[in-house]
Each structure stands twice: as structure tokens, then as C-alpha cells.
């Protein structure tokens, strides 16, 4: 395509709310045949809310939320924001206790010291059995397609927090329209299989990979590319940054983390998934599909 065509397409892209890092992004978008979607914050709004707190026997629900909220306060993850917001609301003075040794592990969870205790909030570990009340809380959350995380103090599981999320209204039509353009949608998430399947069903995606680590996301992209596919990844999180960078084309949600936006070739400034479809149609129309 000519420089004029690129410039025109870039300008149209900006109008659609699609920010391009350079002309190569357009060229590559044109040839994409597979789109790997992240779930939380991408197909869903990522504006999560805490819907349930379950303590183990002998533990206090309010105390678990206070400790979990304190460590999550430093997290950029939608789960962390939901937990911290709920904890602040529940606190009498709206204040959370101070945290030292804060650590966030993408795709896993957060930890820190609060009131002399080591507090961890993160993904349920399949290899660690939970007390019955907590296992039941996990099962209940999963049956309702919610995301559930485990709270540990000093190495002991003391509670389960269930958070709910909402689908972006544009996700389902965007997935359908991409399929119609011959682009295969795949869902890859760090969340559990139940929440993953529920979202996949709602948006109309058949291929689902759940409980995938950030490195695992990169591996899936590498495998697809080895099969000769031209792969775009759409994500928002720190956990998506490596996969975004390793794809033929990385697309970040404008509401996403700096890490995701920095790793991507394209940013969706409006939170509208259908802008991706419009951008693909635009490149095919203006740049031509045959090189
Ligand atoms: P996704 O791919 O859906 O965006 P992530 O890879 O970010 O999910 O996270 C995978 C899992 O790791 C979450 O479902 C959760 O169990 C756990 N996790 C990640 N960040 C946090 C956090 N800040 N607090 C609690 N759990 C977390
Ligand atoms: Mg995400």
C-alpha cells in the first residue's frame, strides 16, 4: 500500500478509537487469522465487585476482608481493586491497615505483612486441600461463574472471596463478526475453568484455555504461530504483557495497565471491542488483502 493509504487508514483508525504504534501495525492487522482474547478486563469490563466473603470456622469475616483489602490495596488487578474497595467501604474510618513487604505476582496474587501477620490473597492452589467450608465456597462461586480467591494468614487458608464481573456489551458481537471475517477467536485466561467456560459461552468462543500462567499465554501464542497462524492477542493486564509482545500483533485495552499498553502495537482507547472488527475491515478495504 502507498504511504497515502497508510496515512488515511491511520486517521480513520484514530476516529474509530484505535491508536496505532506505527504503519506495521496496520499491515499486520490486515493478515490476522486468529485472535487470542484475555478474559478479565478484556472480554469483561474488569470492573469487578466483591459479592461474597466466606471465613473458615473460628475466623471473622470482617477481619479477613480488612487484611485482604490491605494487601490488595497495592494491586492493579481488577480482583485487587474490588477487594480493596469493599474493605475500605467496610472499614469504620475508611482506612486500611499499613502493609509492608508487599509483593504482586502476575497471574497468581498478592502478599504482604499486615498487623504482624503474613497475608496472601491469590488463586486457589489445586495441590493444597482446603477446609470444607472454604472448598464449598469455592464450588459455589464457580457454579455461579464467579472468580474466587483464597486468603491465607501465616500460611493457613482462612477465607474465600468471590468476585463478580460483567461482560462488555461489545464482546459478543465483536467475536461473531471476527468469525464472519474468517478470524478464529480463542479464550486464554489465568482464571479457573468454570468462569472461563461461562464467559466463552456467553460470547460464543469454542476454544478455551483456563488456569494459564503469564508464560503459558506466551507458549500458546508461540504454538499457534508455529502452526502458521497470524496471531493477535488482546489483553489488559501485567500478566498479558509478554503474550502481547510475542504475538504478530498486540492489542491493549485503553483501560488496561501501562505494561499491557507499552507491550502492544495497538491500543483500543474506547472500551469498545467492535473497534477491532472495524479496524480489520478498514485495513482490508484500504490496504488490500493480497500482498
Ligand atoms: P486473567 O487472565 O483472567 O486476566 P490473571 O492471569 O490476571 O487472569 O489472574 C489469574 C488468577 O490469579 C486470578 O483468577 C486469581 O485467582 C489470581 N490473581 C491474580 N491477581 C490477583 C490479585 N491481585 N488478587 C488475588 N488473586 C489474584
Ligand atoms: Mg486481564
Automatic annotation (TrEMBL):
Superkingdom per UniProt: Bacteria
Location(s), subcellular: Cell membrane
Family: Belongs to the cation transport ATPase (P-type) (TC 3.A.3) family. Type IB subfamily.
Protein name (Swiss-Prot/TrEMBL): Heavy metal translocating P-type ATPase
Included stretch of the parent chain: 411 to 701 of 780
Amino acid at each position: 500500500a502507498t504511504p497515502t493509504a497508510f496515512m488515511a487508514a491511520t486517521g480513520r483508525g484514530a476516529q474509530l478509537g484505535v491508536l496505532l504504534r506505527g504503519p506495521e501495525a496496520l499491515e499486520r492487522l490486515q493478515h490476522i487469522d486468529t485472535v487470542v482474547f484475555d478474559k478479565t478486563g478484556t472480554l469483561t469490563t474488569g470492573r469487578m465487585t466483591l459479592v461474597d466473603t466466606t471465613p473458615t470456622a473460628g475466623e471473622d469475616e470482617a477481619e479477613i476482608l480488612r487484611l485482604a483489602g490491605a494487601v490488595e490495596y497495592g494491586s492493579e488487578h481488577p480482583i485487587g481493586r474490588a477487594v480493596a474497595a469493599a474493605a475500605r467501604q467496610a472499614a469504620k474510618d475508611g482506612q486500611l491497615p499499613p502493609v509492608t513487604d508487599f509483593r504482586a505476582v502476575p497471574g497468581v496474587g498478592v502478599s504482604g505483612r499486615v498487623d504482624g501477620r503474613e497475608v496472601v490473597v491469590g488463586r486457589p492452589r489445586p495441590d493444597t486441600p482446603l477446609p470444607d467450608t472454604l472448598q464449598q465456597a469455592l464450588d459455589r462461586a464457580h457454579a455461579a461463574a464467579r472468580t474466587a480467591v483464597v486468603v491465607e494468614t501465616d500460611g493457613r487458608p482462612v477465607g474465600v472471596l468471590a468476585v463478580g464481573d460483567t461482560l462488555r456489551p461489545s464482546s459478543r458481537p465483536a467475536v461473531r463478526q471476527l468469525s464472519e471475517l474468517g478470524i478464529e477467536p480463542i479464550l486464554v485466561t489465568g482464571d479457573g475453568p468454570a468462569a472461563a467456560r461461562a464467559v466463552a459461552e456467553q460470547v460464543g468462543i469454542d476454544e478455551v484455555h483456563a488456569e494459564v500462567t503469564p508464560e503459558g499465554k506466551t507458549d500458546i501464542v508461540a504454538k499457534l504461530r508455529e502452526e502458521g497462524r497470524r496471531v493477535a492477542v488482546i489483553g489488559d493486564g501485567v500478566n498479558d504483557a509478554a503474550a502481547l509482545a510475542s504475538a504478530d500483533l498486540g492489542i491493549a485495552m485503553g483501560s488496561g495497565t501501562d505494561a499491557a499498553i507499552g507491550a502492544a502495537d495497538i491500543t483500543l482507547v474506547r472500551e469498545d471491542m467492535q473497534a477491532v472488527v472495524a479496524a480489520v475491515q478498514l485495513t482490508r478495504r484500504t490496504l488490500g488483502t493480497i500482498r
